[in-house]
Specification:
6-stranded mixed β-sheet; 2 domains; D-Maltodextrin-Binding Protein, domain 2; about 300 residues; alpha/beta; about 40% helix; globular; 5-stranded mixed β-sheet; 13 strands; 12 helices
């Protein structure tokens, strides 16, 4: 077992340990504990570090104890929502539209991207010295995508390959679903993979992280970008106390990038803030993935 897998396993155990087996969500609320599920990059440790400042802020602002959990796939997300084991979910839009009827659609929030917009895309990157300059050059090569829960680094990234006549199962030497952008970029830089899919903002806005990784971004380039998709959705489960939902929404809407402390919290989570959203904002995502809207 690798050190990374061991650390991830320990971290997952610690994050879930505070929820006793069989404990109901009502019992969690009774003791003031609120459970927030986040779509992880698949690397639980990195995901926890990214969202810890935001969770700490929410605990102070709402006066509630919060437990952060990372369902590993859509099936587990659905199971925890249906069982009311989670109170809020911060998820990619493709995950939200699958389970929209299970959420309070009147209190939705959308995350802003780092520039204050409400859309995001994926960027397919390769080393400049790899002679990979177009999508066609990826035939017979290896590619690292993001988590299968990711809209920009998996769902629409696959579509770019399809649009270029590339069947990822037949035409690539191999592909894998990696972790966060840091991991994907590092694997491409070290030539473990010929190309990788990262968030569209990553190369431009994370120079400090790249330096910490020992990555020289000037040796990498973007060969294609995906179509734009909505940013992440923050949603409360149906039946959650309206006062609790209101307190969390107020706290998130209060975050302002012009406030240095808020900017630090938002930067860590790689978001630019929050604004109110409506279910119909995600109809385009439904069309894109063929998800029928519940009547």
């Amino acid at each position: 077992m690798s050190i990374r897998k061991l650390v991830n396993g320990i971290a997952t155990f610690l994050f879930f340990f505070c929820l006793p087996a069989g404990a109901s969500c009502a019992e969690e609320e009774a003791v003031g504990k609120i459970v927030i599920a986040v779509s992880p990059c698949s690397d639980v440790v990195l995901s926890f570090k990214k969202f810890l400042p935001l969770v700490t802020y929410l605990q102070v602002e709402t006066g509630t104890e919060i437990k952060l959990v990372f369902p590993p796939d859509a099936a587990e997300f659905e199971a925890q929502i249906r069982n009311k084991d989670i109170d809020f979910a911060f998820q990619d839009p493709n995950v939200y539209v699958k389970f929209a009827p299970l959420y309070d659609q009147t209190t939705l929030l959308k995350a802003l991207n780092l520039k204050g917009g409400v859309s995001q895309s994926g960027a397919i990157v390769a080393r400049k010295d790899s002679k990979i300059n177009t999508m066609k050059d990826l035939v017979g090569k290896s590619v690292m995508f993001g988590s299968k829960l990711s809209a920009s680094k998996w769902v629409v990234a696959k579509m770019v390959f399809e649009e270029n006549g590339i069947d990822i199962d037949k035409d690539l030497a191999m592909y894998a679903n990696g972790g966060c952008c840091e991991d994907i970029l590092f694997n491409v830089f070290l030539k473990a993979f010929d190309a990788g899919v990262v968030c569209d903002h990553y190369l431009e806005e994370h120079a400090k992280k790249e330096r910490e990784l020992g990555v020289n971004a000037r040796e990498l380039h973007v060969i294609a970008t995906t179509t734009l998709v909505p940013t992440r959705v923050f949603a409360a489960r149906l039946g959650l106390d309206p006062a609790i939902v209101a307190s969390f929404d107020r706290a998130l809407l209060k975050l302002n990038r012009s406030n240095p402390e808020h900017a630090r919290i938002l930067s860590s989570a790689e978001i630019g803030g929050f604004q109110q959203a409506k279910d119909e904002d995600y109809d385009g995502m439904r069309v894109l993935i063929g998800e029928q809207k519940a009547e």
